[in-house]
Amino acid sequence: MISSLATQAPLPLAYYRNSPSIYKTKPSTYFPRFFSVKTLSFPLFLNPSTNTSTSKAKIVFNLQGFLGPISSPAIRPLCSKSGEVGGMASSLQNQDSISYLTQREAAEIDETLMGPLGFSVDQLMELAGLSVATSIAEVYKPSEYNRILAICGPGNNGGDGLVAARHLYHFGYKLFVCYPKRTAKPLYSGLVTQLESLLIPFLSVDELPVDLSKDFDILVDAMFGFSFHGSPRPPFDNLIQKLVHLHSCGQMQHKSPVIVSVDIPSGWHVEEGDVGGQGIKPHMLVSLTAPKLCAKKFSGPHHFLGGRFVPPTIAEKYKLQLPQYPGTSMCVRIGKPPQIDISALRENYISPEFLEEQAEADPMDQFYKWFEDAVVAGLKEPNAMALSTTGKDRKPDGSTMGPLEAPAPSGILEKIWELFKKCLNFLKNFAFPSTKYEIRAFNLSSSRMVLLKGVNKDGFVWYTNYESRKARELSENPHAALLFYWDGLNRQVRVEGSVQKVSDEESEQYFHSRPRGSQIAAIVSKQSTLVPGRDVLHQQYKELEEKYSDGSLIPKPKHWGGYRLQPERFEFWQGQQSRLHDRCSVYLGNRGHDSTTRSRI
């Protein structure tokens, strides 16, 4: 059995936090907002009579200090194994299902690409360098890892590094290049000229600091590729040792530069890897065309494949099993996913200040201004918003018996349960006055993503199924909250207010402006109800599609229409460095300005 639902997307968590250092505000659980989860604990809803979970959803509590040492599997730290770090390129591929090349095979493929298949060296170098740059940008954002030193050798691997440096400069990083043994060929001279025209500094070996960790955040190892034989000669032997030394020192330092190796960690055997165990230990390896055998010995957290140019004839001849590149990406993550410490995930926002004197007098005008900024910035679905609703029973699942009405649990869950009730009673009795507006703060809400389809002085409009869960909750409690999150601008807008249905005429007009496929889907989809399977939905859709194939008017179903939220409160949030964010809150009393405050958190 599956549930017929509206558009699905990651949901923000709804919560309320009171702090004396923050402006005085009228609280409401209807206000969802995005924030960072740092630890994980036990299931959100418990059935105390059986000590089992009644929901797969989990909430975060840190009760270690209150309860003492806990060994229960219900309370444990979270270690995400998700491989998705950045954008589309983070599609994981099992390394056991991918082909690895010997040194001879890699050389033959290069010869074939540059021979009968018509590729030139500069074409392949450009594609390789771009792949390296995009792989770095996937994991290491310029706001945290800005200073990059590219160490380039005299061959094609060094050329890949020079191209990568140019692209990384345009991606917003601050570049430095060490290119000790320059190649006199026009291709390489042209790459140097391109970098010099960008005013990228070239540093000699003697000009490099003794301790690279103080001046650079990323070190790109582009010294030697798969065609290299023998032992590295000066000055590259010394440069390799600098990178090796960084690894040993980095284990004792809080933060040391990350090392990114291009195709082969310099000094490694192409097939056997780090033979003596004394070589470079890169944090990221960007394999090109296909990974070489030594990549199986790579143990760092980030392994990417770049070079989206291998034609089918090459793949068939060498029986290459290569991953699919997602979307338009030039790189794809392969190998095991990194172990991610969720508590260490953070973004240091860099934004212009949002001051009171900059805000529009009417909060609706301020919303229009920010919404237009999001559209102009080209953000995907700037009209996407989280909608939070709640039913009259103060429970998000609509059940008739809440947790506090069940028999008391035993063991460790009893301690957790008692703490939860004490916290709830404190909030009810001491934290807030019991006004009608503020009591709504204790109603637990449910959230989902919907699309804004209209906005004016009367409020915010969206459309949905009137038989869905959110519609049932709105009929019981006609208040809701909206959250717009525009990641590319480091902005949020939260809106809270009362909700009512739009007129039938307005719903009818919008319904027939939709694509005919969406009109049919609105009839077929019975939101928040169980259906036997997706094939049933497809069959019903197909039948209606054939019924109205003559282009006749598709009638709007009675169970479908719009809602309008009339704002009572706005909050405009602008992310700032070191978590000192700007917030401007406006509460509208009787559609007039009651208060306007700003704070930094």
TrEMBL record:
It catalyses: (6R)-NADHX = (6S)-NADHX; (6R)-NADPHX = (6S)-NADPHX. Its cofactor is K(+); FMN. One of its GO terms (biological process) is pyridoxine biosynthetic process. Binds 1 potassium ion per subunit. GO terms for molecular function: FMN binding; metal ion binding; NAD(P)HX epimerase activity; pyridoxamine phosphate oxidase activity. Pfam families: PNP_phzG_C, PNPOx_N, YjeF_N. Residues 106-322 form the YjeF N-terminal domain. Keywords: Flavoprotein, FMN, Isomerase, Metal-binding, NAD, Nucleotide-binding, Oxidoreductase, Potassium, Pyridoxine biosynthesis. The keyword Protein biosynthesis does not apply. Its EC number is 5.1.99.6. K(+) binds at residues 157, 221, 266. (6S)-NADPHX binds at residues 156-160, 225-231, 263. PANTHER family: PYRIDOXINE-5'-PHOSPHATE OXIDASE, PYRIDOXINE-5-PHOSPHATE OXIDASE. Catalyzes the epimerization of the S- and R-forms of NAD(P)HX, a damaged form of NAD(P)H that is a result of enzymatic or heat-dependent hydration. This is a prerequisite for the S-specific NAD(P)H-hydrate dehydratase to allow the repair of both epimers of NAD(P)HX. Belongs to the NnrE/AIBP family. HAMAP family: NADHX_epimerase, PdxH. This is NAD(P)H-hydrate epimerase. The lineage of its organism: Eukaryota, Viridiplantae, Streptophyta, Embryophyta, Tracheophyta.
